[in-house]
Amino acid sequence: MLDTTALNQQRNFFDGHAEIWLFGYGSLIWKADFAYLERRPAFITGWERRFWQGSHDHRGTPETPGRVATLIRAKNAICHGMAYRITPEVLAPLDVREKNGYLREKVPLTFVDKQGNGTEQSEGLIYLASDDNPAFLGEAPLTDIAQQIANAHGPSGANKEYLLNLATALRELGAEDDHIFALEHQLRIL
Ligand code: SIN
Prior knowledge:
two-stranded antiparallel ribbon
């Protein structure tokens, strides 16, 4: 299993910054078990959320991997999530949490106000699992993805909890996400 922890420590895009904005689009939306100074709903453009990344360490096992969220490039798409203002030392434990294929990347993000409108922009950091990482599973029929999620369990818990918590969090944000809500529906009718 590839471990991206050491690679990420060399990806010092925010060296010298006292604070950075981390953009969460998957479990980082609903499981903020790290210290943050402030959080604000935000979105990034040109990316779509997909359950295309394998989870062998959190929501599955090496024998029975689960599926978790990553981002796929998509022109004109908007991906809603949560931005956290953090100090850079918080990245070390996050690198460990995201070690199964995710790499730090720098992206522009837009904050969202209470009316749901985009406001000011900032530089942000995401953890991205791209299609060349060994844990990438890629596209599959929605029913197959839902079945895999229904069956998988790992050290962090049931895979279905990840999907259902993410769908609930996106609904609370007022965010559209056809892929996530269709998968949630599939999981519930299994
Ligand atoms: C994220 O949430 O932003 C990255 C993927 C994950 O940890 O679920």
